[in-house]
Amino acid sequence: MAAFTRRNLCFGAAIGALASALAAPVAAQDQISVIVHRDASCGCCGRWVKRLQEEGFQVEIINEPDMKAVKTRLGVPGALTACHTAEVGGYVIEGHTPVAAIKRLLQEKPRAIGLAVPGMPAGSPGMEMGGDPEVYEVVLFAADGQRGYGKFKGGEAA
């Protein structure tokens, strides 16, 4: 067994610090970054953000004075608008979109602008207010149209 010396202690501490420094960027790179644009007074947006964070997304929140301008700039069709708008992996996520749909989008990488859950369906992520969640559709939207991307009840596929 090696002698316990100040030199060994310092060397061990240096190796430990180096290992921590190298591990930290890898963990940060594994996280998916999301920018969420929202009205500062909206409570359900905060609950939706919490769902993203619980699933390992790294979230930056921007409180916007004019959400309509944000939605227009990002190409969200008027009929698909909801309360908050997010950007992730080159896509736009509108409203209370379930994490499972976002992960599928990022894995499949379809040619699209993004996903939307129009309105504020009861029981959708961030809208869990008790009672029976309603079934709702996630919509994939692109410059040339829209199509269903899955039905959900709460945060789970229906």
Give the secondary structure arrangement, pairings included.
Elements lengths: L5 H25 L2 E6 L4 H12 L3 E6 L3 H8 L10 E4 L2 E5 L3 H10 L5 E4 L17 E8 L2 E9 L2 E2 L1
Parallel strand pairs: 1-2, 4-5
Antiparallel strand pairs: 1-3, 3-4, 5-6, 6-7, 7-8
Question: How would you sum up this structure in a few lines?
Answer:
The protein has helices at about 5-30, 45-55, 65-75, 100-110; strands spanning about 35-40, 60-65, 85-90, 90-95, 115, 135-140, 145-155, 155.
Question: How would you portray this structure in words?
Answer:
- Helix content is 35%, strand content 28%.
- The protein is of the alpha+beta class and 158 residues long.
- It has 2 domains: 30 residues; 126 residues, Glutaredoxin (3-Layer(aba) Sandwich).
- The termini are far apart.
Strand content: 25-35%
Helix content: 25-40%
Global Rg: 21 Å
Mean pLDDT across all amino acids? 86
What key attributes describe this structure?
158 residues, alpha+beta, Glutaredoxin, eight-stranded mixed beta sheet, 4 helices
